[in-house]
Q: What sequence folds into this?
């Protein structure tokens, strides 16, 4: 195999794995947006908050990683409950923009609370995930870390579990019903408040998974919340209400920005990675505003 | 309930007999728009009661006031009382109400478009806790009442016809095992033959399953054919009520709602609205 082909494969795999992170964050967005029509600005900060909580619990309590993870899941569910209680419940029926502003507030609150409780220094996160290069691939001349593969496998497993949850369970069906038609869901006795707590919890758990993966490779620090900014172009690409869209959109952006960096960088300047996603999203907005998987929005009268 | 009984004023016994009684309610939207200006009505257990009136009269608002779906539209009951089985139910959530046995089928069906017909029906059983077997049995019962749905079980509801969606919406409500269904404009947009089929089924559900119906309709003709009692709403007030047979013979109803006038059609506006009946608290 030629070197350039190997390099291409390595870059592509690297891009796909980076894309998995974007997908996870976008997935959290989509879940909340589908169920409540809220654009959750705080999704990225939730990943940071979850990772901070996890690191904090491991450090301060000295408990094993898996105990800390279970406790953090508990914290994320509690957080979802509090958000419903203190924020959403009081803002039902308000304009989407007001709810959006509320999530901006929420982002700052979470950031502040995370800082206050666990400090703002960069923390290493080690939950015992394997590290180092994957040997047989390394022998072939492709450098991929085990952590990256674990991250991808975990994300895939998470998506599979969510798919089963949505398709096969009573609560999952109720979630899809709410996403389809709030009024009708209310009319058959589905409690929107319960559903909101559930989706925010699920989103919180997805954020935790993203936080663990990102934190394990780059440390837990504020920049974690910035991957949320990459989630926006992913959403534009995949459509705001499509779960497969979030996943595929994330992968496309992840791979696309790596390719652009490597193959276009020499011609139009480097650091393309920083803006490529936004340009791609802009192009998409012009060509296919509903996203890859989103439905055409038809106003019915 | 005969007209004579009405005229003698409601007694406590009357109210206790009714499965549902709505007493002089006022509804305001957005804190300022007064839509219902004192509506009272009663639905006896086992009855089919029709709520009639032109577009905008306040039928949907009345049904939503009962099912407590008004909050979601920034509407509020500001006066009066709503009693189901003798108990005030205004403070209950729609979830509690469905558990108690009152469920609404909304105007325009509102099926879950991305769920299959089967899944739509199952969402109706969301509040039940009596186990899979009972739910499965009722699912088959719904398909017995609506054989047309049987072939569409796995189709997404969004891709079924208007009639099938109406059947799905009614079937979904049945899955909650309700005592009472509030049915809003079931005939809307359906071919006359389908309308008859739907109303036939309503009648059979009423007789065989003991479900009580309060149905809102603009199609006065069909509604009065199947209902036992009717109320006519105009501008947020009940202007006339009586047994369905009496309403069918009423000259004004014939003229304005059934289009059967012998003396040439008059304009709606030329005629004084009915004086509101002196009823509750009067
Ligand atoms: N959400 C709402 N906000 C403000 N006004 C409303 C709302 N819903 C209905 N209305 C008004 O209330 C009146 C009665 O409406 P509705 O109950 O839907 O009548 P009907 O079902 O008999 O056609 C209408 O004038 C309508 O414009
Ligand atoms: Mg209506």
A:
């Amino acid at each position: 195999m030629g070197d350039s082909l190997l390099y291409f494969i390595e870059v592509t795999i690297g891009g796909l794995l980076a894309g998995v992170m974007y997908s996870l964050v976008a997935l959290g967005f989509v879940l909340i947006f589908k169920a409540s029509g809220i654009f959750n600005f705080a999704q990225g900060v939730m990943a940071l908050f979850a990772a901070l909580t996890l690191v904090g619990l491991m450090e301060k309590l000295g408990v094993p990683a898996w105990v800390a993870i279970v406790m953090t899941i508990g914290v994320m569910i509690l957080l979802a409950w509090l958000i419903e209680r203190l924020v959403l419940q009081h803002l039902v029926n308000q304009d989407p923009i007001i709810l959006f502003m509320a999530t901006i507030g929420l982002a700052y609150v979470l950031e502040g609370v995370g800082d206050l409780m666990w400090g703002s220094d960069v923390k290493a996160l080690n939950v015992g995930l394997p590290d180092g290069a994957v040997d047989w691939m390394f022998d072939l001349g492709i450098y991929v870390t085990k952590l990256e593969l674990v991250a991808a496998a975990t994300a895939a497993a998470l998506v599979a579990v969510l798919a089963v949850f949505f398709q096969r369970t009573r609560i999952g069906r109720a979630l899809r019903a709410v996403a389809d038609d709030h009024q009708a869901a209310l009319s058959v006795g589905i409690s929107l408040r319960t559903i909101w707590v559930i989706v925010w919890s699920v989103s919180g758990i997805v954020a935790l998974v993203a936080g663990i993966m990102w934190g394990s490779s780059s440390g837990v620090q504020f920049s974690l919340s910035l991957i949320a900014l990459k989630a926006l172009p992913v959403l534009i690409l995949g459509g705001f209400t499509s779960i497969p869209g979030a996943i595929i959109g994330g992968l496309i952006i992840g791979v696309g920005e790596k390719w652009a960096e490597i193959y276009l960088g020499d011609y139009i300047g480097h650091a393309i990675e920083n803006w490529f996603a936004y340009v791609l999203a802009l192009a998409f907005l012009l060509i296919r505003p509903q996203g890859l998987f989103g439905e055409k929005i038809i106003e019915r009268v | 309930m005969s007209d004579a009984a009405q005229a003698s004023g409601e007694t406590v016994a009357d109210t206790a007999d009714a499965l549902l009684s709505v007493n002089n309610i006022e509804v305001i939207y957005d804190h300022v728009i007064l839509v219902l200006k004192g509506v009272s009505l009663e639905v006896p257990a086992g009855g089919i009661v029709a709520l009639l009136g032109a577009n905008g009269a306040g039928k949907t608002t009345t049904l939503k006031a009962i099912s407590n779906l008004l909050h979601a539209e920034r509407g509020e009951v500001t006066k009066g009382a709503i009693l189901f089985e003798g108990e005030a139910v205004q403070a209950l959530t729609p979830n509690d109400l469905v558990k108690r046995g009152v469920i609404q089928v909304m105007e325009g069906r509102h099926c879950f478009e991305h769920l299959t017909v089967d899944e739509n029906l199952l969402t109706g059983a969301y509040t039940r806790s009596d186990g899979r077997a009972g739910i499965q049995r009722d699912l088959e019962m719904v398909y017995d009442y609506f054989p047309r749905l049987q072939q569409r079980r796995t189709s997404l509801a969004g891709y079924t016809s208007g009639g099938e969606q109406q059947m799905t919406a009614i079937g979904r409500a049945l899955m909650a095992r309700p005592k009472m269904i509030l049915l809003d404009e079931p005939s809307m947009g359906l071919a006359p033959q389908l309308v008859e089929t739907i109303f036939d089924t309503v009648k059979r559900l009423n007789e065989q399953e003991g479900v009580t119906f309060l149905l809102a309709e603009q199609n006065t003709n069909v509604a009065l054919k199947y209902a036992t009692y009717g109320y006519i709403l105009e501008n947020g007030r009940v202007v006339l009520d009586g047994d369905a047979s009496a309403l069918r013979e009423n000259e004004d109803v014939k003229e304005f709602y059934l289009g059967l006038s012998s003396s040439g059609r008059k304009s709606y506006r030329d005629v004084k609205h009915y004086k509101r009946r002196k009823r509750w608290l009067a």
In short: Chain B is about 35% helix and 25% strand. The two ends of chain B are 19 Å apart (CA to CA). The interface with chain A takes residues 67, 69, 71-72, 74, 93-95, 97-99, 103-106, 110-115, 119, 122-124, 126-127, 172-173, 176 of chain B (CB under 8 Å).
